[in-house]
Here is the input.
Amino acid sequence: MLTLCPQPAEVPSRGDPHAACRCRCPAHAGHRQRHPDDQLTAQSAREVMEQQSNQPVRRGSTVWAVVITSTAGFITALDNLIVTTALPSIRDDLGGGLEDLEWTVSAYTLTFAVLMMFGASLGDRFGRRRLFVLGLGVFTAASAAAALAPGMNELIAARAVQGFGAAIITPLTLTLLSAAVPAERRGVAFGIWGAASGLAVAMGPLIGGALTEYVSWQWIFWVNVPIGLALMPLALLRLNESQGPNPMLDLTGTVLASGGLFGIVYALVRGNAEGWTSPLILGGLIGGALLLVAFVAWEQRAKHPMLPMHLFRHPSFSAINAASLLMMLGTFGAVFLLTQYFQDIGGYSPMEAGVRMLPWTAMPMIAGPLAGALSDRIGGGPVVAVGLALQAVGLGLWALAVEPQVNYPDLLPALILCGIGTGMFYAPTANLVMSTVRPQEEGIASGANNAIREVGGAIGVASLAAIFSAQGGYESASLFVDGLTPALWFATGALGVAAALTFLIPSRRQTGGPVADLAAGDTPAGAPAAI
Here is the structure.
């Protein structure tokens, strides 16, 4: 059992994690102990997490945790874009106008983004496994309701409830996975989880197109039901329960953060339709920003904050979250436009367009686990930085290659580079986020990171669509390319800035070891960013 020395005198160097405490306390004479400022080993951090759950880690739970959390992450990430290729069929069956179709997409994204930190807080308060199963139940039931929806209003409502279920599930997948996997193996585990989530986002149009073309649009929602029903009993049987240290819910912080994010995301999603200078959009942007400022002020003085602001004092935590927002801004917005490029300009069916995206969408399955293993050796920062740089180069090649007459082989280098870069981003990013916070803060940290990424995706779709509509349109192939090209250059720039930010994160070699000491106290400046 780890014992903490009460005296600060003559503390050994942090560079030697096994050094004995040199304090002069008579009770500790001759004992090998460690000061709170020293690093905890990975095993010690794991003991802390086991004490939180009051039960031992089950044998075989590592494999099951990877399977369960990766599958859950896949289905929630899949629903970001799976609906896009089915919209024409939905309109034919249920009617509705352009605004209804837009809300079919954005209802999920909005609730997903604004409620994710609240979902993480609920897991910390009532039990992460318990809330994970509840979130799966909500998501599964809402998927069935969407498939059975008799009209557009019912479908939009079901999509919003789906987003609420996903907001509970997604942040808890990382905390449950981190609790089940030893620190020295988390890179590979997060690699598999990240590959599954990244693949789901990229393959949404392919899977949605295939189901719509060969079965019916309802099956883009029905496909979630058997998966959710299978995961719920597996989670109860194979995952350990754990809770965060904070027994209180920060309801004020939740309202401020959710309201602020809703205002900003709503304004960005609806900006093109309403007009960027309309009172509704300006009110959403300004009001949302003010609510977020109030949220930060509240969290700094709240007794039980939902998102402790001291997390952002760690430069690696701040850098990786900023990079995550920019990455999703560029990638999500680009995928949204490029799937339309293949269909509207290339003349491909939804299924054919998805197949031609496979060099991008399938690559994370290979690059993700390899990137996770590499991050265990050299640190996550350099791996993520290279991945973002490859995506920036890939989108730049897209911008140079797009033309009214599609020559698919000319697009292959861009597709492959984007795929490798995507795979290199997701796994080490999860590892970086979890390694910069204490074990008991992993729930709120993962919730914040995922919320920031979802907001980035909404910003990406809105901003790239605004650039596209300002410079081009759907009236002809040449006009489409005129709008697509500057939008892709904007996405390239966002990914380039993200890569520059992550190059500032120190590598493992620079820092000299893991950061398991975060379990012992506040993160010191300059602490290593990867495990």
